[in-house]
């Protein structure tokens, strides 16, 4: 005879199967039926929490996970999933704490181990994440996504051969895994003799109606043709790959221009006494302009650590302003910053970084978007340093258009169109010029990528002097730096300095003429730039 416990166990196994199949309504009904008969059933609450998180309601999911933990506080799987919801809510410190609790509970299933790894990865703790991904793969070697996650973490910590093998294994298990196929190509030099064109084109033909898959594959095909010296074909594939995703977005360039204007106004806020720490070094600017290169130069110094691309300053500011908008960076939040306690903001930022990154002493925060907060950073942390990377306008526009940004991150939606990217650059240029005129030169400086490439010794010394650091030869040998790199430049910065990215835009003429005309009209390029 089947006992009540056995019946509930079978019901919950069915609920888990339904949840995996995304039959949410049926899974929910089974869980509720079990809880009606057994209100203290932690597994039913656990499954309901996952269901709620998959619908994007992470606040409610955390409450449901807490119900499960109230019945069984040592559930590693529930702790891990709550940690994932907390990181989605930008509660990084709490998320890492719950992930550590989940790890301490010694989980033995692949999903929980992978979930812990995801939390550590999203918190920027890539070294910590790798072992959890490796154990997950060992337990479920036929799951493509586990291999992809492992590959990404290995890439970020510089184990490129192993990363490539992990991506290839994901593709072997699922030839339609566009992310893994693209990732493998991004870190593998393509040539006429050895390339992935056939696999990429076949996958694009199968998946072209899927906007995200087409985007990934279009970028991979573009990269392959670039490697083979075919920029015209590369540009064609970028246009094809981005087309469907661009159509699905409601991007208005005027929205970003309002953001630039609001950021400019913050440079006029009254000076106040902020938190006195001189530990942070902020490296900012548009993506793909040398921010990672400069970070590697400075983090090769014995007194400097890299904390990665942190969202802590934006999140602390958002919480203190309490603006109702769903974004951490918007004109409303920037305007509301005038009335906050600058000292409290600086202290909150420092506490947030130190508690999750376990960093003491000088550290680098390399979030490019922090450029919008430069005046507020120096208001809250007047002894901090803010470095803004600059690059030739045309190369900046092209490199951003060529970059495959995270599809769920709306701040880079300009990059689906070359003209929009040029308009964005013009707004960025206007904002940074305003900052340079109004912020203290001993705390805010511009660094030009081309000058670093042409004379790394002089530029490294200038950067170190600006940060109040003595020169160390290791800063010149930045490519020997073994610390993790969680950016698109993770492969490039592990090589000695090269010049092939200089004046790349000229190879793409006349395909980028319309973007160049925008830059000329906006005063970012001389009138004879196309001659």
Automatic annotation (TrEMBL):
The keyword Chaperone does not apply. InterPro entries: P-loop_NTPase, TPR-like_helical_dom_sf, TPR_rpt, TPST-like. SUPFAM superfamilies: P-loop containing nucleoside triphosphate hydrolases, TPR-like. Pfam families: Sulfotransfer_3, TPR_1, TPR_16. The keyword Transferase applies. TPR repeats lie at residues 42-75, 110-143, 144-177. GO terms for molecular function: protein-tyrosine sulfotransferase activity. PROSITE patterns: TPR, TPR_REGION. Gene3D superfamilies: P-loop containing nucleotide triphosphate hydrolases, Tetratricopeptide repeat domain. Keywords: TPR repeat, Transferase. PANTHER family: PROTEIN-TYROSINE SULFOTRANSFERASE, PROTEIN-TYROSINE SULFOTRANSFERASE 2. This is Sulfotransferase family protein. It comes from Parvularcula marina.
């Amino acid at each position: 005879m089947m006992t009540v416990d056995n019946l509930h166990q079978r019901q919950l196994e069915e609920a888990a199967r339904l949840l995996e199949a995304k039959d949410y309504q049926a899974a929910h009904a089974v869980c509720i039926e079990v809880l009606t008969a057994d209100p203290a059933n932690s597994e039913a609450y656990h499954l309901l929490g996952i269901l709620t998180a998959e619908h994007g309601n992470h606040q409610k999911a955390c409450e449901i996970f807490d119900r499960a933990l109230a019945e069984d506080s040592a559930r590693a799987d529930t702790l891990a999933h709550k940690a994932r919801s907390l990181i989605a809510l930008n509660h990084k410190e709490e998320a890492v704490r719950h992930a550590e609790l989940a790890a301490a509970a010694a989980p033995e299933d692949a999903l929980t181990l992978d979930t812990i790894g995801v939390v550590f990865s999203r918190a920027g703790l890539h070294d910590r994440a790798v072992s959890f991904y490796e154990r997950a793969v060992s337990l479920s070697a036929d799951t493509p996504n586990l291999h992809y996650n492992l590959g990404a973490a290995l890439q970020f910590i510089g184990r490129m051969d192993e990363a490539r093998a992990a991506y290839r294994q994901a593709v072997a298990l699922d030839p339609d895994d566009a992310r893994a196929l693209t990732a493998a190509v991004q870190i593998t030099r393509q040539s006429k003799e050895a390339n992935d064109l056939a696999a990429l084109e076949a996958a694009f033909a199968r998946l072209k109606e899927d906007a995200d898959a087409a985007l990934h594959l279009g970028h991979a095909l573009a990269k392959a043709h670039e490697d083979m010296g075919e920029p015209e074909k590369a540009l064609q594939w970028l246009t094809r790959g981005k087309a469907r995703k661009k159509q699905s977005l409601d991007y208005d360039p005027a929205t970003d221009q309002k953001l630039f204007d609001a950021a400019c106004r913050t440079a006029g806020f009254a000076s106040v006494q902020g938190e006195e720490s001189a530990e942070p070094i902020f490296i900012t600017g548009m993506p793909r302009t040398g921010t990672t290169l400069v970070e590697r130069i400075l983090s090769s110094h014995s007194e400097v650590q890299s904390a990665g691309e942190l969202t802590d300053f934006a999140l602390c500011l958002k919480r203190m302003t309490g603006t109702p908008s769903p974004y951490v960076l918007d004109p409303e939040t920037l305007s509301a910053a005038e009335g906050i306690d600058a000292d409290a903001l600086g202290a909150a930022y420092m506490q947030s970084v130190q508690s999750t990154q376990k960093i003491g002493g000088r550290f680098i925060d390399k979030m490019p978007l922090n450029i919008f907060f430069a005046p507020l950073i120096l208001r809250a942390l007047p002894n901090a340093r803010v470095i803004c990377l600059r690059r030739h306008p045309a190369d900046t526009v092209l490199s951003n258009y060529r970059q495959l940004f995270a599809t769920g991150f709306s701040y880079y939606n300009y990059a689906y169109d070359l003209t929009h990217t040029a308009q964005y650059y013009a707004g960025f240029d206007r904002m940074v010029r305003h900052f340079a005129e109004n912020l203290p030169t001993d705390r805010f400086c511009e660094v030009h990528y081309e000058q670093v490439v042409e004379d790394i010794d002089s530029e490294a010394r200038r950067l170190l002097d600006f940060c109040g650091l003595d020169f160390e030869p290791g800063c010149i040998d930045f490519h020997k730096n073994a610390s993790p790199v969680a950016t698109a430049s993770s492969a490039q910065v592990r090589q000695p300095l090269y010049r092939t990215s200089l004046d790349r835009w000229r190879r793409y003429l006349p395909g980028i003429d319309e973007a160049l005309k925008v830059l000329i009209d906006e005063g970012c390029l001389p009138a004879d730039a196309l001659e």
